[in-house]
Amino acid sequence: MTMDAGKYDQEAIDAHRSWRGKVDYSSKPTVANLHDLSVVYTPGVAAPCLEINKHPEQVWELTGRGNLVAVVTDGTAVLGLGDIGPTAALPVMEGKCVLFKEFAGVDAIAIALDVHEPDQIVDVVAAIAPSLGGVNLEDISAPRCFEIERKLQERVDIPIMHDDQHGTAVVALAAVINALKITNRTPGGTRTVITGAGASGIAVASLLHSYGVEEIALVDSKGLIVPEREDINLYKREVAGWSGRSLNADGSIPQIADVLPETDLYIGLSGPGLISPAMIASMNREALVFPMANPTPEIMPHLAAEAGAAVIATGRSDFPNQINNALAFPGIFRGLLDAKIPNVTDAHKLAAAEAIANFVGEPSADRIVPSIFDEGLGQAVAEAVKSS
C-alpha cells in the first residue's frame, strides 16, 4: 500500500478556504440585555479583577487561563516542508489546536512569531505567559528548540513542551514497550540504533535511556555519534557515549551499515531510503523496525518484513502502528493543566508512554499503539500524568 502525497491537496485548500481558519473562538456567556452586559463586563467585571489582584491563584478559577495552551512556532521546521516561515506555518498550528480540543477538551490558540533568535522567542512567549496555562512549542528547528524550551521553562511557572521532541519520544516509547512484550525482550538487553539526531532523535534516545534501554547508538548525517567527534553540539554530546562504541581503527566515523548488525531495535527519524533490506537482515532475530520518516520511510514496511523484521511501525496512517504525536500531547497537557503542574518531567513522559502502551490491552505485531480515535485515550494519559 502506498500513499499519494498529493491526494488531499486540492480538497485541503478548498476546505481551508471555506473554514477561514480551523479554530472558532466562541463566547461562553450570552449578552442579551443590560444585566448580562453588567455581569460580563463593566461594572461587574471589576470584582473578579480585584479578587485576582488580592489572590492571584484565583486566576485559574475565574478565567479561562487554566484550560488554554498556546501552540507557538517560528515556522523554521514545519512538518516535512522545512523553513517556510511563520505565516505559512499557521495551518499546521491551527490543526494542532483542533486536535487539542477534539481529543482532550483543551482550548488552544495558534501563535506564529516573526522572530527567530532564541532569546527573542523566549522573551515574547514569557511576556504573554500570564494569559496561558501552558505552551506547546512546535516546528522550531534544532538545536535552537532545545535552548528555547530550557530557557523558557526557567522563566515561567507553566508547563512548556516542545512536541516535536517529547510527543514523538512518548509515543515511540509506548510502541517500544509493547514491541518488547511481544518479542520477550527487556529494556536493558535491547541494543538500539536511531538514525536522525535532530530534536526528535535526541529526545527519543533520552527517553528510551530513562526507561532503561542502555545501549543506544545515535547516527547523524555523518555517521555514528561518539565522544571523539569534535563536530557535534552539546545536545548530541550528551548521548554520545551510550552506544559503547568509538571511531573505527583508522579514525573514520562508523556508518549505519557498520552499526546496525546484531542490534534489536531500529528507529528512523531521518530520511527516505536510508535503510536497505540487507541491513535489516543483519539485525538480530525478530528485529523491531520503526522507520518513521514521512511521507517516505527509511525502508518500506513490506521490505523490512521480508528481511525479517518482526514488528514494524511507521509515521504513516496507511500502515499499522502509526507513531502519531496526537496519541500523546492532548492527554499530556490535559493532565498538566488539571493538576496545575508547572513543568514537564521525565516522570510525566514515562507515565504517558506507559498509559498509551497499556491502552492497547493485548498487543500484537499489528497493534502496538492504540488508534487516535480510541475513546478515552486522552483521559487515560491525563490521569497517568496527574498521578506521576
Roughly how much helix do the residues carry, as a percent range?
A: 40-55%
CATH topology of the largest domain: Rossmann fold
The whole-number mean of residue pLDDT values reads 95
Structural domain tally: 2
Low-confidence stretches: none
In CATH, the homologous superfamily of the largest domain goes by the name NAD(P)-binding Rossmann-like Domain
- Radius of gyration (CA) equals 22 Å
Helical stretch count? 16
CATH class of the largest domain: Alpha Beta
Order of helix and strand elements from N to C terminus? HHHHEHEHEHEHEHEEHHEHEHEHHH
Give me the side-by-side strand order of the main sheet. 7-6-5-8-9-10
Coarse shape: elongated
Structural class: alpha/beta
> In the CATH classification, which architecture of the largest domain applies?
3-Layer(aba) Sandwich
Main sheet: strands, sense, barrel: 6 strands, mixed
Determine the strand fraction and express it as a percent band.
5-15%
How far apart the termini lie comes to 40 Å
Strand element count: 10
